Amino acid sequence: MEITRILDAALRKAAAVWITSPGHEPRLVHAHWRDDALWVITGGTEQEVPGLADQSQVTVTVRSPSTHSHLIDATATAHLTEPDEETAQALRTARLNTKPDWEAVYRLEFSA
What we know:
This is Pyridoxamine 5'-phosphate oxidase. The protein is of the alpha+beta class.
């Protein structure tokens, strides 16, 4: 599907996206694209994302990695999850945290 191709191309290069949760202003969030989903860590010494909760519907706004202009808005469902060790290591590497101090990990899955 076209949206998946666009998201995949953009999110492979993006280190941050804008997430809008219901009832909250858009928030710039560090995220990691992996396994066709966007991974977001929150709490502890990590970022806070007001309104992000298990099963919440959010809007993810992606900017072009080359021009930084608006590229696409996509709806995603957040799933609170416990990452496997390989994914946890990828998240630590992406955030440069050798000792993770996050309280929650969300896997954002996009609607087709």
